[in-house]
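Ticket #4471: complex job returned nothing on first submit. Input attached below:
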Amino acid sequence: MRKKNNIPNLMVNLFLIIAAVFCLMPLLLALLNSFKTKGELLTNVLSFPEKILFQNYIDTFEKMNYLSSLKNNVIIVVVGVSLIVLFSSMAGWKLSRTKTRFSKVLFALFVFSMLIPFSSIMIPLYRVVMNLGIKNSLWGLGVIYSGMGVSMAIFLYHGFVKSIPKELEEAAEIDGCNQFQLYFRIIFPMLKPVTVTICITNVLWIWNDFLLPLVVLSKRDKYTLLLSTNMLFGQYSNDWTAILSALVLAAIPVIIFYAIFQKNILRGISDGAMKG
Amino acid sequence: MKKNKKQNLMLVVFVLPAFIVYAVFKLWPSIIGLYYGMTNWNGLKKTFDFVGLANYVEVFEDTYFLDSLWFTLKYVVVMVLVANLIALALAVLIESRRRSKGLLRTVFYMPNMISMVIGGYMWMFIFTQVLYYIADNTKLNFLDQSWIGDPNYAFIAIIIVSAWGAVGYLMIIYMAAIQGVPKSLTEAAYLDGANKYKTFIKVTLPMIMHAVTICIFWTLNASFQVFDVIYTLTGGGPGRATQSAAINIYEEAFRGNMRFGYATAKSTLLFLLVLIITLIQLAVMKSKEQEL
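Support reply: We reran it on our side without changes. The output follows.
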């Protein structure tokens, strides 16, 4: 079967190349046009820029408070993901090791809510946010994400713990390890493979989430990258050079993240989905 | 008994931190939402009253919301079909490549990394600027449409952008499943004289049905909640022609009249609808999986 049929083979290659170009086109066109002057962009959106013009980027950098937005994103993600990893690994381990009815009920309580979509709890959650006084709080937003993210993470940890031999824990207990030493010194390091998956999926989810920050953050100095981009689009809706450079700037962090962790991301996606 | 008690105590200590954040930000809002849906709470007043099922009665007369549900259903059906067919086709074709496999996978997953807010605006540029330019300067006149302003074309535009964003994720899952199919099976089929197409339908597809179930489940869930793409691309317009249920709920609560109680009732209904449909889907697919 690996002979002659060169023509179908060529067709497949051609199709895949066209599809790949289609896939990258929005990014490439945004990049290409973000270096142009307004006039140049209006005359031809497909040409290469006459000369690489960084002025759009310099202007947009200021207009969208890039560094401050980036910093806000980082705070939310770091708080959210650290809490998810710490809380869920502790809970997932004990839930998996404790074979009581109470433990099963607790686990079921965590898992069942994975079916509830965000839009269904958005408004009651908004009231919780107001009552706790954490509107416009980046730390608060990180904690909210941890509350919404623990279910899935506990589910993954719970499954992974089953594959760790119990003897190790028993030996450590006999050696006089208490439960917290046991968790921090022995269990948590062994959970590393699933921790990596959980970190990556949650970083991406929180980083790219739009609706929750849109509801919770209303002060401009608390805006995330997406909120700033959205705001900039509202203000300069006809100035595509400003918008496109903002879009490229907003996309850069994720693209760098993808470039570094590509293998882990792609593996994490299929692992996470198959178990979830 | 004693051992159980001690174990449970330790369990509580370790589960408590997770339980607190979970209870406050997920469990409590889910439960109390059922009550808010039966009140006339709005964002402007401090107090509100219990109104029973009045909100639910009103929902069924709310043509804007019913239209948005209908739009969402159309969107879900088209997305489940389009995104999964494209993803499956790409997965099969890319799996058949040897050298370019890794690169193609990286490229096709790329849109998934980028938020649909960014993706939505990038496509907006294409629909409002680039396509006009191409239509003006070439013979591809059919591209000269009001992609955002005309309801029908706006629907197509939304599907294109959504599929662009979702296909990579589904493709990765399908590829993992295809890799799990034993080579000996497909080779045996070839030896028995089956062609590639037949081998795929009769051997590979039944072997990856679990991935199909997962992908359809994921697409259903994600599509029912569609927000970002529509918010950035059309904002629900022209008029309310492309308003999804999530957009309708958001607008009811956070724009204009701020009717939180009523909007919560709508969101509860949306949740029940999604729950019923996904449970049916899972039951049907699971029984199919066993048949094969």
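Chain A touches chain B through 89 residues (CB under 8 Å). Closing as resolved unless it happens again.
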